[in-house]
Write a structure and sequence with these properties.
With 449 residues, this protein is an alpha+beta fold. The chain is built from 12 helices and 18 strands. Helix 8 runs antiparallel to helix 9.
Amino acid sequence: MAMLVDVLAFVFVLGVLVVLHELGHFLMARLLGAPVDVFSVGFGRRLWGIRRGGTDYRVSLIPIGGYVRIVGLGPDESDVAGGGGDAADVELLPRWKRGLILLAGPVTNLIAAVVFVAIAFVAGVSVPAYQDQPAVVGWVEPDSPAASTDIRAGDRIVSVDSTATSTWRDLETLMLTSGGREVSLRIRRGNATETVPLTPRRVTRYGFGYSGLLPRLDATVHQVSPNSPAQLAGIKPGDRIVSVNGEPVSQFYDLIRLISPHPGEPVAIAIDRGGATIQLRVTPRDDGGEGKIGIPLVFPTQVRQLGPVAAVGAGATESWRMTIETFRVIGRLLTRKASFRQVSGPIDIARISGDAARSGFRPLVWLMGLISLQLGIFNLLPIPILDGGHLAIIAFESAIRRDLSLKVKERILEVGFVLLILLMVVVLFNDIVKILPESVYKAIHGGSS
């Protein structure tokens, strides 16, 4: 059942976004008076359709995305996806018209990204409360990569490899994409600054980086595990831990530090409940030699819910931020500073889409905004067969003041198609490896995780 939801969510998400992309091409062609031969929802054999105004509006067999065939645009991906055309027998549109038509698809995706993210903000977006706070270290996890450095609680992380970290979101993004690679952290401690080398540990099958740096977390209880020592002792959500065995607790990590050494030993815990101090005795359970009482570490979230006008502004701002992050990640991939395992293909996108669909409307529409943005950016890259590749050819033709022959363009298109297929094979391999049993995965990657 879960797999079915994943597939349906993938078809829906990608189908809507690709059709929007092709709709951008279609509307610009209509605006410029260029004839449109086919507008298809789906690929492959035509199942149903109507012809109106010289255009065959059709529904095709394979329900993932679609394509538009514009007369005079020259050979493009629709010739591959839709079964070819007679481009050699048709006079090309002026270069400026072709450029605008090609540009309209990715731009439509970028606009759609802003709209989808804005809709999510209207519905209400739940984000970690610390995410937009300055990257001040609240805790260094024991036995973590950061624990072997001189970084301490209270240090302000200024930059990573000269990239500024204004907020915790900036820092976490850079750490996630640096798994297994040494980075240079610039930290501020009081009035002094220093540079600290740190190699985030590569974790998960995506090769994400884990540093062990965490933001400050108040010692307020948000959850209590059922039948845990904490629940049996009477601790409730909303209580604030004041001390353990007389030692003050200023933040949640102090609780972990003070409870961990006492598995099976009663400890005295003072809590603040509604302004009143209550003394309790709790016996931590032994969990692998560490004392735990069943209070999970929970980072508080806040819901950002905006009106329509403010949501559009927030959608544009967030889309711009994600665009910058996307190019930053592309740069890190090209310079081998980030793992290619972090790139998601169709299988991964299907799983993520299914998770978002099961989580509700807001996560799904936010994901659609994110993927629409990536689709728009990807299509603008100067790769043959993509819109950006065609735009690069038009720019080159404009520079030499003549059109390349259709045969040359077709060869470029074929090379681009092959490169795209090779890229898809690599991405699919990555996707498949991520879902293999652990023993097979470790055999492929030499035991690394």
